[in-house]
Design a protein that fits this description.
The chain contains 16 helices and 52 strands. It is mainly beta and 946 residues long. The strands form 11 sheets. The chain has a 22-stranded antiparallel β-barrel. Strands 10-15-16-13-14 form a 5-stranded mixed beta sheet. A 5-stranded mixed beta sheet has the order 35-36-43-42-39.
Length: 946
Amino acid sequence: MKIYLFILSLFFCGITYSQTSISGSVKDSKNQPVPGANVKVAGESAGTITDANGNFSLTTTKKPPFDLEVSSVGYGSSTVSVTSNNQNVSVSLTEQETQLDEIVVSASRTPEKVRESPVTIERMTIRDVKKTASPTFYDGLENLKEVQMNTSSMSFKSINTRGFATVANTRFMQLVDGMDNSSPLLNFVLGNLIGVSDIDVASVELLPGASSALYGANAFNGILFMNSKSPFKYQGISAYVKYGATSQKAAGSNDYRDYGIRAAHKFNDYFAAKANFTYMNGTDWWATDYDDKTVEGRDRSHHNYNGINVYGDEATTNIKSVGQSLVGLGLLPASALNILPNENVSRTGYNEVDLTDNQVRNAKIDFSLHLRPFGNEKLEVIWQSKFGFGNSVYQGANRYYLNGFSMQQHKLELTGKNFFVRGYFTTEDGGSSYDMLFTGLNINRAWKPDATWFGQYAGAYVQSTLLGATPTQAHAAARNVADTGRFLPGTPEFQNAFNQVIANPDVLSGSKLVDNSKIYHSDANYNFRDLIKVAEIQVGGSYRRYDLNSFGRIYTDTPQFGGIKYDEYGVYTQVQKKLMDDRLKFTGSVRYDKAENFDGNYSPRVSLVYTAGEAKNHIFRGSFQTGFRNPTTQDQYIGFNVGNAILLGSAPDNLTRYVETLPVTSPLGQALVGGTSTTIDGNNAYYNSYTAQSAQAFAALAPTDPIAASALLVRTDVDLVKPETVKAFELGYRAEVKGFTYDINGYYNIYNDFIGNLTVVAPLYGTAQDAPNPLLGPTDPGAQSIDALATGNTRAFQLYTNTDIEIKSLGFGVGVSKKLPRNFEVSANYNYAEFDFDQAKDPSFEAGFNTPKHRVKASFSNDNLFKNFGFNISGRWSDEYYWESTFDDGMIDAVTVIDAQISYGLPGLKSVIKAGATNLGGTEYRQLIGPGLIGQQYFLSLTINP
């Protein structure tokens, strides 16, 4: 709080300086306005951009005479002299490739030219948005160097850079107008659900790699900045309508619609406002991967089938154990036990396409009010509200249908030339969302309980065998008997059961996801450049509170324990200094962050940028920083039943917050626990369990050699989760040579205490120990745990922890672009990435690099091939890579994707018609295991006043 008061006093002092105001317009050689041009005072970082009509206004504390520097992508820079206050200037730019003079803000939290950026930065301008060959600008981000896109649903795409990709990407941060778009409950970004529309986006900047030194613990693998248009600069009404189709072998051809409107008005120099509305709907990519999750080559004919996009078949049990229970109840003769195989059998599941309507929808509404008390940019007060609604599919440990999901953000911000102070809160509502795995399980159970189904299966298997059936025939006959009367998709019985299950949050009989979580966040920054001239110094800080409320469905926030509130804060400072006739730029920063359950961490960063050459067109950069990532709220407080395991966070108090009562079926176990059930908590998972890998090895060998099998058991030795750290080294080179623009970078990261998952199996009785001896008898705790494993009296957990093994990753990227004669442009980039992790030293730990080693992207375009006609062709290729996740593992094939668009401008109507198509080759592909294959998409759009 003291630092905020200090910053507030500084900026109120700063706004008392005398001001010089300049206004004007920027046009090209054809006397057409140049929107989005950068205008800055020479020798200063402060600047502005031109509006849609090429107009600008700027205030500065510098007194005339001084120079203005004007630049824009695709044009040469121009310098204009300012000799008096309130001067109006006209600037003409000549077409030329000058990307190094673009102004960016994100790399150092202050406006600077790309050539001065201390780290790698990628960007998308208004011009890039207009010419993208993708259906939306957000889809088009996939063509940026360093970007890897992971598609969980047509409306849910996750961006990642520099490895360790996942849909639930808690390592990557996304800011829209300074607000973190992360879900309060899930801690990661839900694509562009509550982002920016194509007609309101002003600029996009991407920082690949660790950015913790300025942006905190969540900016560990990178950060994306999306900035919307100011109503002071971009006024009027803009609208678009987009219609097309998606095409996929599984789903066929289906309509796709997307439309939106933006209205903005500057009432006077003191007040402006804007509002946006967009709506998209279509048919999702159908998920129809019916390969078995556990055994390659196994299909639905197998008695223990567990399909990737099939749900309900996770209910599995040892059919011989079922027979033992039936014998004990007098329902099966003892002689039948010799007939039943010592194998697991699974229930018949439902296809994913039968458990959703396969529709995607997304509506976005936002409005903002902008007040300038002094009639200029030295102080602006902004109130902004954003709302996102929709349907989508999110994939974590299971696949979840986000049905009627909503999220909203509300922000109050004070900003000026040298400061900002903002506060916002984010809240979400799960709507009618549900877990598809438990939907399948509990529709089956609503028809027939598991015990009844497996009992009928066992009896029918015995009967068929006695009648002369082979084992394969007996399994088929047993399933037919047990499935008699099953609720089939499309019948009223199925629909009634489905409706009841998805409305019920109890995992024993329902699948509904409940969520009403919130984030409260504030941050501030002050730049001393007008007070201290020897160097540019910034200070800032942030505070965040998580208020988790899943009503015990996902987190351990059950009513008896109350909700979960979790705080974290951070402060930082940065110093920048130019030396050697402004050719060498030094940047040093350090940030301190403290999260409630962990010790504080410092994140320093040091970088140097050197500009060489007479024209200053060769720029070399190098940086080093240490970063860290605090465990997320999921890592600490989750207690989520996903069917085959419990996802369990490792905050110390979470181990006792999670409590579960489970049945005990073996005679020894019942004698030990004193009944037919026992209660366990999170301490069993972390301190009395076996690694899943050793438990699986035991299960495979135990039927034939129980003594040797027991020797394979490994007791779990795992610590509670703690912050992960990285040491990041980066070198880079930018240049403009003979019309070519080059950008080359390389990085090397060293991770310690890498956060990941470990699956364990906890016996419901006995004591887990390395290589327990079954010969010691039923009084020995180790032998008791063997009995629990052998009889299925266990609970599987997925734990959140760190590996002791150091992980290293490295990569490099090369980008080149060239503006050719007759307005043609060509660009290409290549990325290489790999990582080093000695799996043998920690065989149960899954790092999940999930990144192709080689990626190539290219584009060829001309936005004025002839009068008012333009086109863009973009392509990308990536090689195969292995995907690891809590849902499933598997190989992702190499893929080549070509997108294209043509556009025609209607100047008299201030409109543009665009026709485009994605994946022109037609080969369907995937980016991770689980979602549907991505097919083709065609669209035709009309944009008015783009």
